[in-house]
Amino acid sequence: MKNLIYIIVLIASTNIYAQSSIVTDELYLKYEKANLDVIKNPTNGHNYELAITTFYSNFTDYKERIKFDKSKDKENWLNKNYKKTAFKSADEGVAVYNNLLKSKEAIDGVRNNIQEIQNELLKKYDANLISETLRNRLKAAK
Question: pLDDT for 55-79, tens place per residue?
Fold first, then answer.
């Protein structure tokens, strides 16, 4: 029984020590900041959702939306078929579509940045340690 208690204390202290070393790592701090920025400033996500809603709400017929989604050249499709939508002109349709693409690029850029940092962290630390440390620190930051 005494040995079991020692093992539990050893595991707990090892975990605490491991977390204390990760929280001083510059790469981890960069990872944490990137995640905090997404949580505190969800503008990219909101802009993307708004762009999707704005763009697809102009399709009055779901069959036309399906045709648009299947087309390989989306801008060309809008130029030729904007009258089958609620867009006032082909230019408006293309502009709203391009806004959708820019919003998606912004959110993908943030996601890719976080993923790259996480991949580098995984070379140094266990995935569970990274996620547990992040979770604990985000709770503490609230």
Answer: 999 999 999 999 999 999 999 999 9
Residue 17 clears pLDDT 50, i.e. is over it: no
62-70 and 74-81 helices, crossing angle to 10°: 140
Going by C-alpha positions, the residue among 21, 27, 17, 14 that lies closest to residue 122 is 27
Single-letter amino acid code for the residue at 111: R
SS (H, E, C) the chain: CHHHHHHHHHHHHHHHHHHHHHCCCHHHHHHHHHHHHHHHCCHHHHHHHHHHHHHHCCCCCHHHHHHHHHCCCHHHHHHHHHHHCCCCCHHHHHHHHHHHHHHHHHHHHHHHHHHHHHHHHHCCCCHHHHHHHHHHHHHHHC
Decide: 90 and 78 in contact? Cβ < 8 Å.
yes
Closest CA to 122 of 138, 133, 107: 133
